[in-house]
Amino acid sequence: MGKERTELLVIGAGPYGIATAAYAKHLGVSVTVVGKTLDFWKANMPRGMFLRSGPDWHLDARDVATFAAYVNMRGITPEQIKPVPLDTFLDYASWFMGQYDLRPLPTLVTHLTRSNGTYSATLDDGSQIRADKVVLSLGFAWFKHYPELINKLPEGSYTHTCNVVDFEFFRDKRVLIVGGRQSAFEWAALIREKGADEVYVTHRHPTPQFTEPDWSWVQPMVRRTLEDHGWWRRSTDEAKEKIRQDFWAVGRLTLEAWLGSRVHQANIHIHEKTTIVTARSLADGTFEVSLNDDTTVNAHHIILATGYVPNMQNVGFLDRQTIARELQTLNGSPTLSTEFRTNLPNLYVTGLAAVQDFGPFFGFTVACPVAARIIGEAVSQSK
Ligand SMILES: Cc1cc2nc3c(=O)[nH]c(=O)nc-3n(C[C@H](O)[C@H](O)[C@H](O)COP(=O)(O)OP(=O)(O)OC[C@H]3O[C@@H](n4cnc5c(N)ncnc54)[C@H](O)[C@@H]3O)c2cc1C
User: I need a labelling partner for 260 at 20 to 30 A (CA). Which of 140, 207, 213, 329 fits?
Assistant: First the structure.
């Protein structure tokens, strides 16, 4: 098996990984990217999904290969991307990679270890790559959140949205979805459209409004990080909480207007301000679930649209002795320098796992160019 050597190894070829690799490459860093391109978007989001983000969010730290430039080049009309279809975003990402001649190795890192100041990654096929610097752009799938209520659910009754993207199984069936954000309602609409008999949605907060959300204030706030990398961490707890609330208010309390008519259907039943009280398996293989609004739902399956929470302990390929045990974390997230560097030399973390130190925007593509710029510059300047 070969043992390749690279200056920078980027693990994960999602939006953050390719954005960072492209900019580092532009700065003259020798970069190897390992990961199946946009795998989370292809394998863990349903076909037919639309993005919440618009055409102004893009991947290029140089503001050149933007989504707008791609749209222009392809001759796509504004109507075709309002909202942006998942496939269009995938095509943009692939065009973006072409602009920077990025060719990720389409495999997985199965083990990452550290010794004598360098990192060594073992790939799925057993080959190895040695790297001076590593960026972990691992995104979402490692961080599926299972709420405590799963303790009430019978074994085999539930699946996280991340693992339910083929809806054929739900034809002529009844489904209960736990969650109240975009994915809960988008899954509800798509599952119903696939021919489910009944779809029930339960969530603790009031049902969101289906109106055009206003994300316009987010971009300037994210860009502020370029001038002042540490503004988020220096903000008071109250100020952070206010921004989080505003951010989640857009994400949680309003949902895209185009989803409303698809959700307000006779066989989609929304139980706002409810939780599951009990659940049991029935002899016919279905599940009887009682909610605290005195409703009883009989469902063939329960889908948890309960989101993602970073926890580095979940990342199983990090060597225990030399990385996982040495990595400084707070509440499961790595503690990062203002350049996204962990306490381990030349090991960087970006995307969702950086949210604690950089703000909630870093869980969305809006912050890809900013993270890419900061990490790219840090990597190109570090020895
Ligand atoms: C249903 C849903 C809808 C969303 N809609 C939007 C939206 O409209 N707009 C938006 O901006 N954001 C949206 N998001 C958030 C979106 O997922 C993030 O913006 C984006 O994925 C972040 O990019 P990333 O590169 O950090 O993560 P990811 O896209 O998760 O990419 C991480 C990559 O790392 C790879 N990886 C992990 N471990 C390894 C390993 N050991 N070896 C090799 N590769 C590895 C994974 O395969 C994956 O491809 C949505 C999320 C969900 C769940």
Answer: 140
152 and 296, same structural domain? yes
Does residue 219 belong to any structural domain of this protein? no
Please say if the pLDDT value at position 253 is more than 90. no
Q: Which of 122, 365, 366, 370 has most ligand 1 atoms within 8 Å of CB, for mutation?
A: 365
Are 205 and 353 in the same domain? no
pLDDT digits (tens, 9 = 90+) for 86-96: 999 999 999 99
Q: Are residues 119 and 38 in the same domain?
A: yes
Question: Tokens 């072409």 map to which residue?
Answer: 98
Task: Examine the domain organization and report whether 111 and 174 are in the same domain.
Answer: no
Query: Is 96 found in the same domain as 48?
Result: yes
> Ligand 1 pocket, 51 CB below 6 A?
yes
**At which of 248, 282, 304 does a domain end?**
304
Strands 254-255 and 209-210: parallel
How many CB atoms within 10 Å of residue 235?
Answer: 14
- pLDDT tens digits, 4-60: 999 999 999 999 999 999 999 999 999 999 999 999 999 999 988 889 888 899 999
Mean pLDDT of the chain: 94
Task: Indicate whether residue 105 lines ligand 1 (CB < 6 A).
Answer: no
User: Structure tokens of 188?
Assistant: 């509800």
Residue 188: per-residue pLDDT: 96
Mean pLDDT score, 228-241: 96
Number of domains in the chain: 2
Atom of ligand 1 nearest to the CA of 45: 1
Q: Name the residue of 39, 136, 143, 314 whose CB sits within 8 Å of the most ligand 1 atoms, as the mutation to test its pocket.
A: 39
**Domain check: are 25 and 159 in the same one?**
no
Ligand 1 atom nearest the C-alpha of 50 is 8
For residues 50 and 136, membership in a common domain is answered with yes
Atom 37 in ligand 1: which residue has the minimum CA distance?
A: 138
What ligand 1 atom has the least distance to the C-alpha of 84? 8
pLDDT, tens only, 286-303: 999 999 999 999 999 999
Instruction: Give the CATH number for residue 291.
Output: 3.50.50.60
Phi first, then psi: what are they for 315, rounded to 5°?
A: -80, 90
Tell me the residue range of the domain where 167 lies: 148-212+256-304
Domain final position from 304, 320, 340: 304
Query: What is the residue-wise DSSP string for 143-187?
Result: GB---GGGGGSPTTSEEEGGG----GGGTT-EEEEE--SHHHHHH
- Å from CA of 284 to ligand 1 middle: 37
Ligand 1 lined by 181 (C-beta under 6 Å): no
